[in-house]
Write a structure and sequence with these properties.
The chain is of the alpha/beta class. It has a 7-stranded mixed beta sheet with strand order 2-8-7-6-5-3-4, sandwiched between helices. Strands 9-10-13-12 form a 4-stranded antiparallel beta sheet. It has a two-stranded parallel sheet with strand order 1-11. It has 13 helices and 13 strands. It is globular and about 55 Å long. The structure holds pyridoxal-5'-phosphate (PLP). The site of pyridoxal-5'-phosphate (PLP) has 14 residues, from helix 5.
């Protein structure tokens, strides 16, 4: 009997997908190396955890766990609408903002159409594009950031969606309001622009993208509760767009894609501004701590507006992203190798608690010595 399945993927893009490489889980490293004292700075998680108010809201919600969640997510949508001054009909809730990205691809990109994104951009963009059998157009970055002029020029007749990340992961780079405004003017109104703002809470100086929504019915802004709100395991994010765009996505969305604990926890998290402010302050201090450590080691880095930083670990061809990642694992420190992002000389490290940052810096110095 032939043990090889004859079943083929729906399109050649699926066979070519490089599976998403998530940050290595702490428990996995424990199992593999028998280590107990592990620091994970690999997935841009909030080292403070989440708001105590979010925890309490989830605890309270547990009593109702036997019931299906509200498929319309009324309580969370009402909180989002209130906070960001949008209509509830403009909101799409997602099982993480990755769900929003995937829903966008399934709703708006037909097989053989194309989607545009930047070099060094978040890995989920090419993944969702390939999964629907579409063509990804990767535009060369400029100083590791998005080249919005080139990206606008890269839009073709068959382009359905452009993905932008601001700040971008894994580079931490940002573009300006003027560059974005000029970009939007160049984009045909039948092309959807996805502005992924997963880290926006860490950079309050960033321009207010929401004010572009009334002018551009082809703009979708995505946000997440996984980063500054500290709810990565809960899987909840949201998209803000015109009602027409939201209505179309809503037809593709699974009715219960966001669970009841997530709905309750996220709504409570949104109300706890003080927690987000504490997270911002800790992040700013941690960023300064890492930059000072890198300077002391003679390393350079890409200036970051997010809660992580990409540091150049190789000045002379002695180290690679993967080798430094592996060597740090042996010391119980998990960072993110970014060779897959065409950045083989860099590693990405998330900002942790002061003692976690110090532990990472010590381990890095030993590895590079
Ligand atoms: C972390 C991240 C996300 C958010 O993922 P979730 O699915 O919401 O956890 C989205 N975009 C970028 C650029 C990210 O780095």
């Amino acid at each position: 009997m032939n043990s090889l399945s004859q079943i083929q993927p729906a399109n050649v893009g699926i066979a070519k997908i490089a599976p998403y490489q998530a940050g290595k889980p702490i428990d996995e490293l424990k199992r593999e190396l028998g280590l107990t004292d592990i620091v994970k700075l690999a997935s841009n998680e909030n080292p403070l955890g989440c708001s105590p108010q979010a925890s309490a809201a989830m605890q309270a919600e547990l009593a109702q766990i036997g019931r299906y969640p509200d498929g319309n997510g009324f309580v969370l949508k009402a909180a989002i609408a209130d906070k960001f001054a949008v209509e509830m009909s403009q909101i799409t809730l997602g099982n993480g903002s990755n769900d929003i990205l995937e829903l966008v691809a399934r709703t708006f990109i037909a097989p053989h159409q194309s989607a545009v994104y930047s070099q060094h951009a978040f890995a989920v963009y090419p993944l969702v594009v390939q999964a629907v059998g579409a063509i990804g157009i990767e535009v060369p970055a400029q100083d590791f950031g998005h080249d919005l002029v080139a990206m606008a020029q890269a839009v073709r007749e068959d382009t359905a969606v452009v993905f932008l990340a601001n700040p971008n992961n894994p580079t931490g780079t940002c573009f300006s309001e003027a560059a974005f405004a000029a970009f939007m003017q160049q984009i045909p109104s039948n092309v959807l622009v996805v502005l992924d703002e997963a880290y926006v809470e860490y950079f309050p100086e960033q321009f207010n993208s929401l004010k572009f929504l009334p002018q551009y019915p082809n703009l979708l802004i995505s946000r997440t509760f996984s980063k500054a709100y500290g709810l990565a395991a809960l899987r909840v994010g949201f998209g803000l767009a015109s009602s027409q765009i939201s209505d179309l996505i809503n037809r593709v969305r699974q009715p219960f894609n966001v669970n009841s604990l997530a709905l309750a926890g996220a709504a409570a998290a949104l109300a706890d501004e003080a927690f987000v402010e504490r997270s911002r302050v800790l992040n700013r201090e941690g960023m300064a701590q890492l930059e000072a450590g890198f300077t002391a080691m003679g390393l350079t880095w890409i200036p970051s507006r997010a809660n992580f930083i990409a540091v150049k670990i190789d000045q002379a061809g002695r180290h690679t992203s993967q080798s430094v990642f592996q060597a740090l694992l042996q010391k119980g420190v998990i960072v993110r190798p970014v060779g897959g992002y065409q950045m083989p000389e860099y590693i990405r490290v998330s900002i942790g608690l002061p003692e976690e940052n110090a532990r990472f810096l010590t381990a890095l110095a030993e590895v590079l010595a």
